[in-house]
Design goal:
By secondary structure, the protein is an alpha+beta fold. It has one domain: Gcn5-related N-acetyltransferase (GNAT) (Aminopeptidase, 3-Layer(aba) Sandwich). The protein is 28% helix and 35% strand. It has an 8-stranded mixed β-sheet, sandwiched between helices. Helix 1 packs across helix 3.
């Protein structure tokens, strides 16, 4: 396990993404199910992945964290606080758990909950926002107190059809931490 544990939960912890994570991240971002749900152009080359890492490794407005299992430190996904705006005190949040075997059991919920606590308590954010076309992710956000704020109709194109993206917002005083 590399890196310091930044945020601890019972099932997962978050730490800043490190260069030693790049090979794993490259493998994940080249999985169609991952680059599709993340809404990024894929697949990516090693060079593109290295440029991406250089950009995020020093960014204060796009904070990318490794989601790791608490029991053994295994890196199972990534979480981002993106478009962090320190003046208006808001940011976006997104998460993916790469392996299907870890996509249940509340790991993503706990990871997003930890990120919300960090964003509100340490970064002093007032609001977080997320968007998704995934009903499971939508339920995750609702459990944490996010409110559906709107719909971006036919926003994304997947597998020959356009799909809506649901917008969610969470104000600091609406946050319900995961148990």
């Amino acid at each position: 396990m590399s890196g310091r544990r930044l945020l601890h939960g019972g099932k997962v912890f978050l730490r800043r993404l490190e260069e030693s994570d790049l090979e794993r991240c490259e493998r994940w971002i080249n999985m169609p199910e991952i680059y599709t749900i993340m809404g990024v152009f894929g697949p990516r080359t090693r060079t593109e992945q290295e440029v991406w890492y250089r950009n995020i490794s020093t960014s204060r407005t796009n904070l990318v964290y490794a989601v790791c299992l608490a029991k053994d430190g295994r890196h199972i996904g990534n979480l981002s606080l993106f478009d962090v705006n320190y003046m208006h005190r808001n940011a976006g949040v997104t998460v993916f758990i790469a392996d299907e075997e870890h996509r249940s059991g509340g790991l993503g919920l706990e990871a997003v909950s930890l990120a919300c606590e960090y964003a509100f308590d340490y970064l002093n954010m007032h609001k977080l926002h997320a968007k998704t076309d995934n009903p499971v992710a939508g339920k995750l956000y609702l459990k944490l107190g996010f409110v559906q704020e709107g719909v971006l109709r036919q926003q994304s194109y997947y597998s020959g059809k356009y799909v809506d993206k649901i917008l969610f917002g969470l104000l600091r005083d609406e946050f319900v931490p995961a148990n």
